[in-house]
Amino acid sequence: MTAASEIVAGFHPVREALRRRPHAVRRVLAGERRGGPRLLEIEALCRRHGVPCERVPAAALAALGVAVHNGFAAEVAPEPGAATGGDPDLVVLLEDVQDPRNLGALLRVCDGAGVGRVLVRDRGSAPLTPTVARTAAGASEWVPTERITNTAQALERLRQEGFWIYGAAEGGTPPWQLDLAGKVALCLGGEEKGLRHRTRELCDGLVGLPMRGRVASLNVATAAAALLYEAVRQRT
């Protein structure tokens, strides 16, 4: 692999890299046994943007160190902060989301809801790995994601920018009873304990989903989808 490059693996992440930043894609690798419409789509994108597409044996893809690749991988020059997001007045802050699949699912939800940017607390959170990109189905190419070191400082920065900050927590006000049409930052915590106590204290208010069944809580990505799409409803 070329110096200062990263591996993007899986059909959706490779396709979205070719769509969003083809100038950064150095080459695409496709399994020699791979065929069908997905291969044709990747090859067409490579031809359009002048990106080399190489057919390689499965062992060559396995050597990249990516456990699951679905027969596609790409060598890409990193572009920190290059993604362009949706609504700049809708921000999500994540802390302690440790499962890379949950982080990927969250990014996919954020892209679907048109979130302008996602702030991820560095300590205690999953890194942005190929597993995250694959679970996000390419959404990580489109959602600007910033790693932060201090939640309190990030929230203060958002407050100075005019954002009203809500923390997702059990017992919080249902989202349809809140005004989510303005500059809103939604804070979501990890899989085990949710938001940290100090983070809850720093929020302007708490938002929650009433649970009417027997299970105590929702998966963090599922909860994010319900909360963000109420914001989408109010904004439209």
Dominant shape: elongated
- Note the quaternary state here: single chain
Tally the helices: what do you get? Answer: 8
Strand content: 15-25%
Largest sheet: 6 strands, parallel
Give the distance, in angstroms, between the N- and C-terminal Cα atoms: 45 Å
Unreliable runs: none
Spatial arrangement of strands, main beta sheet? 7-6-5-9-8-10
Radius of gyration: 19 Å
* Total beta strands: 10
What does this structure look like?
This protein has 236 residues and is an alpha/beta fold. Helix content is 34%, strand content 24%. It is built from 8 helices and 10 strands. The protein has helices at residues 11-20, 37-49, 58-62, 100-113, 130-135, 151-160, 197-202, 220-235; strands at 6-9, 25-31, 53-56, 72-76, 87-94, 115-121, 145-148, 164-173, 184-188, 205-207. A 6-stranded parallel beta sheet has the order 7-6-5-9-8-10, sandwiched between helices. Strand 6 (115-121), helix 5 and strand 7 form a beta-alpha-beta unit. Helix 1 runs parallel beside helix 2 (37-49) and helix 4 runs parallel beside helix 8. The longest helix is centred in the last third of the chain and has 16 residues, at 220-235. The radius of gyration is 19 Å and the shape is elongated. The mean pLDDT is 88.
Please sum up the structure shown.
The protein has 236 residues and is an alpha/beta fold.
